[in-house]
Design brief:
TIM Barrel, four-stranded mixed beta sheet, 18 strands, 33% helix, globular, binds fe (ii) ion
């Protein structure tokens, strides 16, 4: 493996640095630490002041359903429940080749956008478990682009029918990386609590982390996040446990929300918010005013809870849009969560990078000597500019090797007296 050199890049903190990569790891970061003459021309990228960040991380995705939007029908009501019904019809005829084709395409889109780690959920209530087995096998076939983690995700509930608990256990035995659950989709409050405890039991038994879809509803009576946080405290597993969505927290009264936020902080459980899906799914049963149905990012962060930022769906029955770009999710969050302030820029990037990396348990992560030789250079001057323009990823480097490059689009503006190239920088 040979050296790779990036010169004159701008970090999120605003520092202009060179980055020298040797044997797949960062050897040095700082002003004038790299000599472009020491490497062949195709091993040098002159960033010329463009933004550089560590690689992006997708902490919450559904690769078994990706690319199925509109098949067999579109989600007309916009509800989570209709999405689950449509997916139930689709997965009846699902086969491995179909999943591989759709999932691989989405993984490639992610890689092109600078993502080198993806945590995907796999439906563990699909009776043949083709979903789980195929996504587990996909880990190897996409390993040159991304590290893929597979969550055993019991979409239709674990205790809702007898066979689902058996399938859930089989899915975990099949070699998944993470244990999931969906307590708000169980039939009763009691079954929801039992499903959280069962997921925790199995995670401990198999020494696996947990990532639960939890309280993804506008029902303020949905109170399973407190159960997960409590179990995490008692079992001391908070640092490898994630509460995904937790949108009911939006609708809790403030006194109860304060209790849950405090419990999460004490437990060490991280939260992942998924703005593309929850921006369109939540509030679907409301008249006006229509709730946004978002988890309480600011309160959680103030309390010290790690909050990751996921996309959740790309082209599926729950969210019809998407190109596999975490900056799309961030752009939605800016508007949806009132995070358009200038000081929110740093928070958004912290969520996209360090927080997401913490959720998936990434080690060797960062942009410093000794960390992995992976990074992203953007067609942007700084973090604000990259979010504003959802800037093309000029270079995606993984372990010192380029995995994607994007040339920026060229626009020509025609006016009556002139035509000229137009750019959108400021
Ligand atoms: Fe999800």
């Amino acid at each position: 493996m040979s050296d790779y050199v990036v010169t004159d890049a701008r970090t999120l903190a605003g520092d202009r640095v060179d980055i020298k990569i040797r044997d797949g790891a960062i050897a040095a970061v700082g002003p004038d630490v790299a000599d472009p003459g020491s490497v062949p021309a195709d091993r040098h990228f002159a960033a010329d002041g463009r933004l550089v960040t560590p690689p992006l991380v997708e902490p919450h995705l559904h690769l078994d359903a990706t690319g199925t939007a509109g098949d067999p029908r579109w989600n007309q009501s916009g509800t989570l429940a209709e999405g689950i019904d449509i997916w139930a019809d689709y997965k009846e005829g699902i086969d491995a080749d179909d999943i591989i084709e759709r999932a691989t395409r989405t993984v490639e889109w992610y890689a092109a956008h600078g993502v080198t780690r993806i945590r995907t959920h796999a439906d563990a209530t699909e009776p043949s478990l083709t979903t789980v087995k195929t996504l587990c096998a996909l880990r190897d076939t996409v390993a040159d682009l991304v590290d893929l983690q597979v969550v055993a995700f019991p979409q239709d509930g674990i205790l809702t029918r007898e066979r689902n608990e058996r399938l859930f256990r089989e899915a975990i035995e099949a070699g998944v990386d993470v244990v999931g659950a969906i307590p708000h989709n169980e039939h009763t409050r009691e079954d929801g609590v039992a499903s959280v405890q069962l997921a925790c039991d199995l995670a401990e038994e198999h020494a696996l982390p947990l990532d639960l879809h939890i309280d993804e509803t506008d029902d303020p009576g949905s109170r399973f996040t407190e159960v997960l946080a409590s179990e995490a405290i008692k079992r001391d597993i908070g640092d490898r446990t994630t509460a995904s969505h937790a949108t009911a927290m939006h609708s809790y009264d403030n006194a109860y929300a304060a209790k849950v936020v405090s419990l999460l902080a004490e437990s060490g459980v991280s939260v992942v918010t998924n703005p593309p899906d929850n921006a369109v799914l939540q509030g679907s049963y409301d008249d006006y005013p229509r709730r946004r149905g978002h988890t309480r990012i600011d309160q959680l962060q103030t309390a010290g809870v790690t909050v990751g930022l996921g996309h959740d769906s790309v082209l599926d029955p729950w969210y019809h849009y998407g190109v596999g770009d975490p900056l799309d999710a961030a752009f939605i969050l800016i508007h949806y969560a009132h995070m358009a302030g200038r000081e929110d820029v740093a928070t958004l990037w912290e969520m996209l990078t360090e927080a997401n990396a913490a959720v998936v348990g990434a080690d060797d992560y960062g942009l410093a000597a000794g960390t992995e030789g992976s990074l992203v250079v953007y067609e942007a001057t700084d973090g604000f500019d990259a979010l504003r323009r959802q800037a093309p990823r000029r270079l995606v480097l993984r372990d010192g090797e380029p995995i994607a490059e994007t040339a920026p689009a060229e626009t020509t503006l025609y006016r009556t007296d002139e035509s000229r190239a137009l750019d959108f920088s400021y």
